[in-house]
Amino acid sequence: MTDSSAPQTDAAAPSSPLIVVGIRPDTVRRDPELPGAARPEPTEAHPALAWAVERARATAADLKLVAVVDPKAEGLDALAIAPLEALAIPLRATGLAVTVEVIDDRHVDRALPDAATDAALLVIGTDHVPGSRRERGHLSRHLVSHAHCSVAVVPSLDEAQRREGVVVGVDGSDVSHRALAFGADEAARLRETLTIVSTWMPVPVSLDVNMTYDPTPYDLQAPTEAFAQTAVDEAHTRHPGLDVRTLVAEGDAAIAITDASTSARLTVVGTHGRSGLARLLLGSTSTAVLENTTAVTVAVR
């Protein structure tokens, strides 16, 4: 393992929140005139890093850039540190506290989350390549399922498209309340409208003990709207005056959240713990949203 750090601060000073950013070393251009070195690149060339930098500046957080390399590739860890430093040096010059780390491990889906054990947020790019037959969001989904903290998945987006608003999906679970809190905080920080999405599915009603069912499904629109209003009240408790809207509809939650996020600045969903089936299955709504990301998406733990 190779580690490079920014100058240490006073040990007595309160620690800043940490944002860990997963970086693929092969995405940084190397300098052909300097073996093992890399050309400094604009942060904008790496969407996940650019997003993390903006958030670090806004929240007074420290950054850690992490690359995971296969230990069978002899000497690759030494080569990987140069691209990370090429990204870190100009950021340090702007006053950000940035460290870099290269981890020897074949299993990036475990090693990267473990590097973010004490982080407030893990930020990664999407592994989807347009035109590729590979399952979309495969690595992103596995990283989220193994993560110890919340994870932001940052896709490559059309910079010309105007994006506004924060979208959060709620379902009444404990993690849903945490997702709502995160979404409300971000909407307030970004001065954006918060859209709360809640959906319902038709429920057939039993008519007698023989378990025959009414062919007309029970309509849950009204109670779901009432539930969504409690979420609005919860958001307003955290941020009075926040512009909050609701989207309540019959149908699949993931589809509703994804459709509402087409031009959103941020999407927020909840995800369950790292043990048992919760880790293996992640959650159908979170999984579907991550696999069809149309905006920067944060999976809140």
TrEMBL record:
It comes from the Bacteria. It holds the Pfam family Usp. Residues 43-155, 166-300 form the UspA domain. InterPro entries: Rossmann-like_a/b/a_fold (IPR014729), Universal_stress_UspA (IPR006015), UspA (IPR006016). Belongs to the universal stress protein A family. This is Universal stress protein. It comes from Microbacterium aurantiacum.
